[in-house]
Every structure is written in C-alpha cells, then in structure tokens.
Amino acid sequence: AHREENCNYGYKRTGFSVNNIVDFQFRKIEDSITSGFELINPREHQSYVENFKKERAKLEYFPENIFSNLVELCFNNKPILRAVRIITQARNLPNEIKIASLYVALETIKQKIVDDNIDKISPFKNKLFATTIINNLKNIISNLPEDNFNDKNMVMKKVENLNTLGNNDSFIWAFKLVEYELSKEDKKYIQLRNRFLHGNVPFDNEVEQSKNEALLDITTNTHFLVCGLLLKYVGYEGVVKDLLSYINLKKGIYLPEKPLFKRI
Q: Contact, 88 vs 3, CB < 8 A?
C-alpha cells in the first residue's frame, strides 16, 4: 500500500476518556509512491482461489489489530519506521539499488526482533555466567606472551563477542522467533545481502536481459522476505501474494508448484 498520513479521527467521548473511534479518513500525500509491489490484495486472492483452485473463497482483509500493531511499532521505534520508509521509497529505484535498500530494511527489522529476544537466543543461557567466563578467558589471553599471536587484539575481540550471535545465525533466529519457516531458497537470498550492501552487483557479465531477470527475481523475493518478517513480527497470520509468480502469470506463465498466494 502507499504511504498515507494526516488522519482525521471522530470520537465519542465520556468525560476525558475515548470510548471508541466512530470514523476515520485518510488523505493520500502528494508524493506517495505506488507500484505493483503489494503483498496483500483480498480481491485478487479470492479470484485466484475461485479460478485456479476451483473453490469458493471469502475476502480476507488485512486485520485492524495488525494494522494497529504495525502503526504502534513504527510510532514507538524509529529504526523500524525508517525501515518501512526505506521499503516504500525504494519502489521506484532501479532493481540493484532497490535490492540493497530492502536488505538494509531486512537487517533493521531482524535486529529489532533479535534484541527483543536476546536472553532466549544468546549462546550462554546465563548472562552473568557468560561474563565470568569471558573475563576469565581475557585474563588468560592477556597474560600470554605476544609471540603466541599474529594479532592478539583480534583474539581478544573474538573472546569479547563470545556470547554474541553471528550475523547469519541472527537472521535464522529472527525468522524462527516469529514462526516464519525459511526454505533453502529463502536462505540463499538472505546470504546474498553482503554482495549488494558492499556495492557488488552480481550478473554484471551477463547479457542485459538475463541480468534484469535475475535482479527482478532477487528483488521480488527479498521484498517478500522483509515484508513477511515485519508482518509476522506484528502478529499477522494470513495470505500474501508471491510477486514473482504474479509477474510470470501476467506474461502467460503459470507454474502450479509456484502458487500466486501463500499463507504465512
């Protein structure tokens, strides 16, 4: 969906307390960016089920409480708000820049989830015990002769981070914590992030058409992952659209093993 702001609310009031919202109105801001990169479309999902699955389907709208959770999260957490802005603003950028932007947003959302659950996922169960062990190891290493090391400071830094998750592990944990099951293909797209974040664009030696197709594949799947992670974090359970399958369908390509909609 596009960005919307300046909401006007109508309230029923008793004294100084708000009982319930009776109406609201959105005004689309002039520089809103819209595109086909949407994950939730109830009418398209209903049409897909009825036409491709030959089953009756009801409209599954985006739940009010999930929207409320998402707004509250953005209001209370500036990094998450910036991540959402990055996702929306990246929509009209070239794919190689869009991918890097989406990976920045993915990193931000992942870190928020990890930070919220650090006591559950740190290598040591007990933080005080971990600190004791780390300090003991640092004392042992600091007393060893320098000629035992190529880089003693590097060893000390590694010991200091002994109770810290590695970056790849933290991604796996973030999705696991929100009960989003990653496929092998999903993990492949996550592992590509460093190449784009460090300015290296794969497929530069490919012909232009092949390069564009490969970048579109990464773009759509990364967008799916970052938005899926954010939606699961705020409690969403429902249908989302597979953008690449949808784009292929518009080209006349339909693969039954690649459904247009998934449940997360």
A: yes
Residues 228 and 76: their CA atoms lie apart, in Å, by 20
Burial group, residue 201, by CB count within 10 angstroms (0-12, 13-18, 19+): middle
Measured distance CA(21)–CA(8) in Å, rounded: 11
Residue 254: CB atoms within 10 A of its CB come to 12
Residue appearing with tokens 């933290």: 170
| Whole-structure pTM value | 0.79
The contacts of residue 232 (CB under 8 Å, 6+ apart) are 175, 178, 179, 180, 264
Other C-beta atoms within 10 Å of 223: how many?
23
The CA distance from 141 to 81, in Å, is: 43
Distance, in Å, from the CA atom of 47 to the CA atom of 56, rounded to the nearest integer, reads 9
Tokens of 3: 């960005």
Exposure string over 109-129, b if 16+ CB within 10 A, otherwise e? bbbbbbeeeeeebbeeeeeee
Q: Which of 116, 121, 141 is nearest to 130 (CA)?
A: 121
Instruction: Please name which of 1, 40, 36, 52 lies closest in space to residue 239, comparing C-alpha atoms.
Output: 40
Give the N- to C-terminal CA distance of the chain in Å, as an integer.
Answer: 18
Q: What is the pLDDT of residues 132-189, one digit of tens each?
A: 999 999 999 999 999 999 999 999 999 998 988 888 889 999 999 999 999 999 999 9
Compute CA 238 distance to the chain's CA centroid, rounded to the nearest angstrom: 16
Helix (H, G, I), strand (E, B) or coil at 165: coil
